[in-house]
Amino acid sequence: MNRRLLLFLLLVALGATAWYLAGSRGSTTLDRPLSDFMVADTSQVDRIFIAEHNGKWVDLRRRPDGSWSLNDIYKAKKHEVDLLLRTFLRVEVKAPVPKSAEENVLRVMSASASKVEIYTGGKKPEKVWIVGHGTKDHFGTYMLLEKPGIGRSSSPFIMGMSRFTGVLNTRFHADLDTWRDTEVYAFDDVYEVAAVEMTLTGEPDASYRVEHPAPGVVRLLAPDGRALPTDTLLVKGYLLAFEQLNYEYIERNLDRRQRDSLIATPPSHVLAITARDGGTKRIKFWWKPYEGDLTAPEAVQAEHDKVRMQALVQDTLLVTVQRQMFDVVLQPREFLLP
Amino acid sequence: MKGLLSGSGGTRGGRAGDLLELGAGIGIVLLVLFIGSFVRLRADLTSEKRYTLTDATREMVVGLDDVVYVRVYLHGALPADLRQLSQATRDLLDEMRVWNPEHIQYTFIDPSASEDERTRNEVYDDLQKQGLRYSSIRLRDKGAFTERIVFPGALVTYRDKTVPVQLLKTQLRTPDAEIVNRSINNLEYELASAFRQASTLHKPRIAFLEGNGELPELYVMDVTNALKETYEVDRVRINGKIDALSKPLEGGNYRVNSYDALVVAKPEKPFDGRDKYVIDQFVMNGGKVLWLVDGMNAHLDSLRKNQFSIATPMEHGLDDLLFAYGVRVNKDLVLDKSCAPIEIWTQPYGNQRKLERFPWYFEPVSIPESTHPIVSNIDPVHLRFASSLDTVAAEGIRKTVLLTSSPYSRIMRNPVRVSLNIVEMDLGLDRNATPYQPFAVLLEGAFTSAYADRLLVAPDTLRLWGYREQGKRTAQLVVGDGEVIANRVDHEKGMYYMLGYDRYANAKIYGNREFLVNAMNYLLDDHSLISIRSRAITLRQLDPERTVLERAYLQAFNTAAPVLVSVLAGLLFHYFRRRRYSQA
Question: pTM here?
Answer without folding.
Answer: 0.70
